[in-house]
Amino acid sequence: MSEEQSNSSCASNLPSASITTEMPSGPVSTSSETPSTSTETPSASTSSQIPLSSSSSQLPSNLTSNLAPETSNPSTSTCAEKEKKIDPMKLKILCIHGHRQNGAKFKVKLAAFRKIVDKYAYLSYVTAPHAVADTTGGGDQDPRTWWYNTEDNNYSGKCLGGPAYGFEETLEVVKTGVRDLGPFDGLMGFSQGGCLVGLLAAMQQKRLLPYRFRFVIIISGYLSGSLVHRGFYEHNLITIPSLHVYGETDSMIPKEMSESLANKFNDPVTFEHPNGHYVPVSGPVKAVYEDFLADMYQQRLIYRQEVERTAE
């Protein structure tokens, strides 16, 4: 059962749940939220300077990156060396999966998306800290959630007025991902992950994060209905550049929910595809991804040039 189909009722107080940070050590991907037919703690804000891309040879098991270290093996062919060489000017994006997914599954599901954005960006992935029961019958391994908002320690995207149990642990997981794999130019989130990305953008607007990013891509995202999150959306519009993609026939997260989140941003780029709850990668949406990231890439180059001129 996916996050939006949960019949669990909302509660103001949830019983304590066992929290584990044991994550699969393999590559990170999407989950049972995506139809099988698809290919697809607060502190002062820090500087927005974006240093060169880097990667770690040893990462925590809940973090995965597409960045490959440069080879030092003299027997490796020149072609292979070029393929593994890191382009320091490419954008770096942290990808945040949905409910009942994990980072490794999200990476697998985003294989086609990675090919579309490869010209402009490297993708990294992080896994949610909270385990949830797999009631889908699909055999997915290690389903995770970013926070609970129901009385049975589960999650529903349509739940209004509930708590956000475990959200502080989630903030720590994202902060660790930024520290170990970042810094990042942008965040990309799907479904509950899109909801989380929207919250992080709102928190950055209020200077409540210890890191910064310059844009967001939100797919099938929505406003959190948890009471403790409402204050993040209040007052000014979120000024960070944003791309919002959602499905016209999405029954899990109706397009009106995604539009409500997009309306919290100043001058958002929106794209409505004709299908349901998944990450679309075919048709006109490909150009939408490419155009948005091309703009973000160009802004990064301009920023880098300004930094270099200032340093002279």
From TrEMBL:
Recorded coiled-coil stretches = none
Ranges of compositional bias, category Low complexity: 29-67
Q: Which residues form the signal peptide?
A: none
Report any one BP term from Gene Ontology: response to retinoic acid
Q: Which domain of life is it from?
A: Eukaryota
An example GO CC term for this entry is:
nucleus
Molecular function GO terms recorded: hydrolase activity
Annotated Gene3D superfamilies:
alpha/beta hydrolase
**Ranges of compositional bias, category Polar residues:** 1-23, 68-79
Q: What segment(s) does the record annotate as region Disordered? A: 1-82
Q: Which UniProt keywords apply?
A: Hydrolase
Q: What positions does the domain Serine hydrolase occupy?
A: 90-283
Per the similarity annotation, which family is this? Belongs to the LovG family.
Q: What is this protein called?
A: Serine hydrolase domain-containing protein
Organism ancestry: Eukaryota, Metazoa, Ecdysozoa, Arthropoda, Hexapoda
